[in-house]
Amino acid sequence: MNDQAHNDHSRRRLIIAIDGPAGAGKSTIASRLARKLGYVNLESGAMYRALALKAIDNDSSLDDEAALLKLAQESRIQLEPTLGGNRTQLDGQDVSSRIRERDVTEAASRVSVHPGVRAWMVDRQREMGAGGGVVMEGRDIGTKVFPGADLKIFLDADPVIREQRRMQQQKIKGEIASNVAADLRERDRRDRTRAASPLMAAADAVVIDSTKMGEDEVLARVEELARGKLESARF
Ligand code: DC
Question: How many angstroms does the Cα of residue 203 sit away from the middle of ligand 1?
Answer without folding.
Answer: 20
